[in-house]
Amino acid sequence: MYSQDILDRKIGALDWGIIFSILILFLIIYIPRSIWMEESEIRNDARERMLDISNSQDFYFELTGKYSTNGEHLFELIEAAMDSLIADSTFTGSQSLNLSDGKYAINIERGFEVKVDTTFSDAVIMRKVKLDTIYTVGMKNGDSGGVDTLFVNVRDLKSFTNDEMFYDIFSSDTTSRTEIVTDYLRKKYHLSNERLYCPITHEKFYFDIDESDSENPIFTVSSPVPDDYTEPRFLVFQFEAGRHGSIKGGITTWASE
């Protein structure tokens, strides 16, 4: 027979063993999940950066008629063109931009800044409550000599009250309505040079311009991360980058995944 003291020690050791086992089980479940989330977040970040580069090249081609292999120059020109058109709405047609490394000729269309704003932003869906006031308006009827009753929105009221056939405003009623709108400016971001680099290796994304067809060059941006790239995590686990893909001629390789 074991003494009570020995039994207490064995029970205490068993309790600690159970607690330790539960902790190990929790870590085995939690750590891989956290690594998978990290892999997904970094992969999505890298793809968003490549999309920004690809879209910037499309805008650059629209402005200059060619693509650029210089990422810093690419971003600087797009930002400068957008800012110039915002500052001066007449800054359209054949223009020149003064950048840090010289002057560049561009051809810019009206509304270019809107396209850039809506492209390089995270759309925010918002609900807006608006008040509508409807007026009951009387208008003289020249043929019958009577008065016709019309329902008029507040924005159109002035045109009726200024009409020579206006008779009177009989009543008004204010109602509220909810509109769902998409706001592109709330979460707009700038094209910082940081977006030219892979978030894992911190190497620049690869640029390639296929000019085999001089009239229709094709730009490709791809990730510098190998498909089999891994990093150790917590000694026994692995971070796997997976396929970050590329964008060729505006078409993403991950669209079919």
SSE inventory with pairings:
Layout: H1 4-64, H2 71-87, E1 93-99, E2 102-108, H3 112-119, E3 124-140, E4 147-153, H4 157-161, E5 166-183, E6 206-210, E7 218-222, E8 230-233, E9 237-240, E10 246-248, E11 251-252
Antiparallel strand pairs: 1-2, 3-4, 3-5, 6-7, 7-10, 8-9, 10-11
Helix pairs in contact: 1-2, 2-3
Give an account of the 3D structure.
With 257 residues, the protein is an alpha+beta fold. The protein folds into two domains: 163 residues, no CATH class; 60 residues. The strands form four sheets. A four-stranded antiparallel sheet has the order 6-7-10-11, with helices on one face. A three-stranded antiparallel sheet has the order 4-3-5. The protein has a two-stranded antiparallel ribbon with strand order 1-2. A hairpin with a 2-residue loop joins strand 1 and strand 2. The model has no long low-confidence stretch (mean pLDDT 85).
- Strand fraction equals 25-35%
> How would you sum up the major sheet?
4 strands, antiparallel
User: Which secondary-structure class do the elements indicate?
Assistant: alpha+beta
Total number of beta strands: 11
Mean pLDDT: 85
With strands numbered from the N-terminus, the spatial order across the biggest sheet is 6-7-10-11
Shape: flat
The low-confidence runs, each spanning 5 or more residues with pLDDT under 50, are none
Computed CA radius of gyration, to the nearest angstrom: 32 Å
Total count of helical runs of at least 4 residues: 4
The number of distinct structural domains comes to 2
Query: Helix coverage percent of residues?
Result: 25-40%
- Topology as H/E string? HHEEHEEHEEEEEEE
